[in-house]
């Protein structure tokens, strides 16, 4: 049962904390049993929005499977704003050295920098703090105008709501994009992995809409993309006509249901081929009758 430990600083922004916490809580609701813990140097943590949070002062026992997230706090300048002591920064560093992932939202990147975790690594933070982060941690490679960056077990995100994007990305990396899409949908949010790289997942790339009928069709295709799925069966699953499903699906995603299924197949086949499978065997695994269609679709891509 992995733990997500949130390290809380005074004047933290509630959404910096609540966004990622909601993502991992949603994953737990979906059957991936994350335990959320909240740690601070003092038990009562005032937030920038006026609510005081009660946190534990004892760190949970962490393993390399666990995640530590440092939400950001209100600060016009980073210098002298976080107040984390040497012992806390050492805990961050030790968790990463043991193989664990350490992440931050917004100003939380400064805590990672003070722990030495940004040295030689790419990172980001809120656009208003990027210049100061680069000046305070000259060995860090600050990337501007992105939502998040992940580099060697150190994940940093930009301002406020981008913590949700980063948390969804971490969830997709650990459990696959289907779970991230499911959690994002439950949150009525976008499922996206557009940090500093192009979106690579068809499941996420075509889930950034709020059409419930189309999401239900996608749920069926996601679960059975290796099978033959006639349009009539997809339409029947949502109680609509075939032409209506095609029209709604294309309007919401930009492609037809068949193209979406093919994209999932090709994506899975590329994963298998990259790990040593032949084109022929990969085509068979993902549901193509032979390798010709897979080769044609890969060439088109």
From TrEMBL:
<dbReference type="GO" id="GO:0043565">
    <property type="term" value="F:sequence-specific DNA binding"/>
</dbReference>
<keyword id="KW-0805">Transcription regulation</keyword>
<protein>
    <submittedName>
        <fullName>Transcriptional regulator GlxA family, contains an amidase domain and an AraC-type DNA-binding HTH domain</fullName>
    </submittedName>
</protein>
<dbReference type="InterPro" id="IPR009057">
    <property type="entry name" value="Homeodomain-like_sf"/>
</dbReference>
<dbReference type="GO" id="GO:0003700">
    <property type="term" value="F:DNA-binding transcription factor activity"/>
</dbReference>
<keyword id="KW-0804">Transcription</keyword>
<dbReference type="InterPro" id="IPR002818">
    <property type="entry name" value="DJ-1/PfpI"/>
</dbReference>
<dbReference type="InterPro" id="IPR018060">
    <property type="entry name" value="HTH_AraC"/>
</dbReference>
<feature type="domain" description="HTH araC/xylS-type">
    <location>
        <begin position="215"/>
        <end position="301"/>
    </location>
</feature>
<dbReference type="Pfam" id="PF01965">
    <property type="entry name" value="DJ-1_PfpI"/>
</dbReference>
<dbReference type="InterPro" id="IPR052158">
    <property type="entry name" value="INH-QAR"/>
</dbReference>
<dbReference type="InterPro" id="IPR029062">
    <property type="entry name" value="Class_I_gatase-like"/>
</dbReference>
<keyword id="KW-0238">DNA-binding</keyword>
<dbReference type="Pfam" id="PF12833">
    <property type="entry name" value="HTH_18"/>
</dbReference>
């Amino acid at each position: 049962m992995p733990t997500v430990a949130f390290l809380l600083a005074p004047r933290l922004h509630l959404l910096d904390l609540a966004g990622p916490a909601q993502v991992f809580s949603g994953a737990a609701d979906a059957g991936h049993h994350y335990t959320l813990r909240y740690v601070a140097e003092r038990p009562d943590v005032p937030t920038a929005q006026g609510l005081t949070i009660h946190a534990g002062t004892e760190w949970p026992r962490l393993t390399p499977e666990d995640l530590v997230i440092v939400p950001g706090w209100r600060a016009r300048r980073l210098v002298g704003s976080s107040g984390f002591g040497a012992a806390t920064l050492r805990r961050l560093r030790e968790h990463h050295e043991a193989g664990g992932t350490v992440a931050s939202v917004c100003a939380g990147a400064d805590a990672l920098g003070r722990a030495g975790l940004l040295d030689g690594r790419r990172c980001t933070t809120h656009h208003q703090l990027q210049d100061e982060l680069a000046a305070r941690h000259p060995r860090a490679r600050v990337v501007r105008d992105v939502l998040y960056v992940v580099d060697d077990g150190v994940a940093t995100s930009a301002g406020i709501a981008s913590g949700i994007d980063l948390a969804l990305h971490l969830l997709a990396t650990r459990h696959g994009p289907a779970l991230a899409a499911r959690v994002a949908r439950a949150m009525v949010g976008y499922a996206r992995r557009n940090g500093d790289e192009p979106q690579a997942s068809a499941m996420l790339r075509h889930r950034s809409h709020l059409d419930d009928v189309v999401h239900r069709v996608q749920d069926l295709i996601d679960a059975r993309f290796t099978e033959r799925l006639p349009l009539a069966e997809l339409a029947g699953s949502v109680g609509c006509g075939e032409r209506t499903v095609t029209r709604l699906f294309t309007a919401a995603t930009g492609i037809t249901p068949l193209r979406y299924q093919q994209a999932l197949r090709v994506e899975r086949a590329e994963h298998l081929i990259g790990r040593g499978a032949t084109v022929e065997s990969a085509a068979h695994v993902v549901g193509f009758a032979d390798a010709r269609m897979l080769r044609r679709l890969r060439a088109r891509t």
